[in-house]
Amino acid sequence: MNTVRHLPPLKALRTFRAAGQHLSFKLAAGELCITASAVSHQVKKLEEFLDIELFVRKTRALELTAPGRAYFEFLDSFFARLEAETHQLREEFGRRVIRLCVPPFFASELLLPKLSKFKCLMPDTDIRVMTQPSMMKVHPADADLSILLGAGDWPELETVPLFSRHIMTACSPALKKKFGFRSYSDLNGRTLIVHENRPRSWENWAKSLDIPPPRPGKVYRFDSMAAVVQAAAQGHGVALVSWPLSESWFKSGALVRALGDEVDSGERFYLAYRDDASGDEKVARLNNWIVEEFQSDG
Fold first, then answer.
1. What 3-state class would DSSP assign to 12?
2. Mean pLDDT for each 10-residue chunk of the chain (298 residues)?
3. Which residues make beta-bridge pairs with 55?
4. What angle (nearest 5°) sits at the alpha carbon of residue 156, between those of residues 153 and 158?
5. Cis previous bond, 244, omega within 30
6. Which of 23, 100, 222, 250 has its CA 20 to 30 A from that of 30?
7. DSSP letters of 233-249?
8. Both 245 and 173 in a single domain?
9. Are residues 255 and 169 part of one domain?
10. What is the rounded distance in angstroms from the CA atom of residue 41 to the CA atom of residue 51?
11. Residue 50 burial (CB < 10 Å; 0-12/13-18/19+)?
12. Which of 45, 49, 40 is nearest to 19 (CA)?
C-alpha cells in the first residue's frame, strides 16, 4: 500500500527561506517581488501546516525560534544545493542564458534603452534581466552579473565601479513656475516626495548642504524611484531624484531642477560577479559591454 507524503507548498518554503535570511518580511518581499503582507501570509501558512511557530514576531524585528532556525538551516542548504545543481544542469544541457540582476530604475532608465546594442553584438545570446531594489545590495545566487549600489564592500565578489549616485531636487516645470524655488527655504510648506526605502533622504540632503531640513506642508511617500520621479513630473511635489539615472526626464522637459543643488550620495553603482563567472566567454562579453556603456567619472 502506497503512503501519500504531504509536503509544504514550495512557494511557502521559498518565502520562509527569504524571511529567515533577512529576518524581515519587508526585505523578503523586496527580494521576492511581492508585498510584505503576502510574505507574512505565506509564513503563517507554513506555520499552520507544520503546527510550529517559526518566528518570534517583535515590534520592529523578527527572530527565528529554535525549531524555526533548524528548519531554516536545512532549507537554506537544500535550496543552495538545488540552485547549484540546476545551474550545472542548465550549463551542461540547456540553451545559454545570461542572468543579469539590476535595480528597477537602473533597468528602465539606462539598461533597456541600450539593450538593442547588445543584441546586435551577441544575437545568439539570451539575457534574463531580473530586478531587485537597490537597497538590497545582494548578488543573487542564480545571477551571473549584478548591478549593485553601495560602497564596494563585497569582499566575496569581483566588482567594477561604474558611476557615482548623486541626488538633486526636481519638480515639474509648472510647479517651478508657480513657486519659483529660488532658495532652500522656499521648500518650507510645500509638498515633498519621499522614497519609502530612504525615509531620511531629505534630512541627509540638508545635512550635506549644511542647511536646516525643509519643513513640508505635506509628504507623499512612494516605494520606488520610478514612482517618485513620475509623481514629481506630474506636479505633485518636489522630489529628490537620482542622477544620472533620471537624466532622460530632464532632457525631455518633464522635470526641471527645483534648485541648483547636486549632492554626492556617497554611493556608487558597481558591476558585480563571482570569480567563477569570469571564465565564461559570454558573461565576459556582457561584462565588458556594461563597463563600456555605463562606466564614467560621474
1. helix
2. 66 93 90 88 94 90 93 92 81 73 94 85 82 84 91 89 96 96 95 93 94 95 94 97 95 95 93 81 89 84
3. 64
4. 80
5. yes
6. 250
7. HTTS-EEEEEETTTHHH
8. yes
9. yes
10. 15
11. middle
12. 40
Structural domain for 123, as ranges = 94-162+268-294
**Rounded CA gap, 99 and 82, in Å?**
17
Distance (Å, rounded) from C-alpha 235 to C-alpha 170? Answer: 10
CATH number of the domain where residue 275 is located:
3.40.190.10
d(CA 263, CA 210): 11
Distance of CA 157 to the CA centre of its chain: 18
216 domain residue, yes or no: yes
- Asked whether residue 54 is domain-assigned, the answer is yes
Question: Pairing between strand 55-57 and 62-64?
Answer: antiparallel
The structural domain count of the chain equals: 3
Q: What is the pTM of this model?
A: 0.67
Q: Whose grid coordinates read 533548524?
A: 70
Cα 66 to the center of its chain, rounded Å: 31
Distance, in Å, from the CA atom of 152 to the CA atom of 288, rounded to the nearest integer, reads: 19
- Asked if 177 and 148 touch (Cβ cutoff 8 Å), the reply is no
Report the CATH number at residue 49.
1.10.10.10
* 216-265 tens-digit pLDDT: 999 999 989 999 999 999 999 999 999 999 999 999 999 999 998 999 99
Do 173 and 259 sit in the same domain of this protein?
A: yes
Q: Find residue 163's DSSP bridge partners.
A: 269
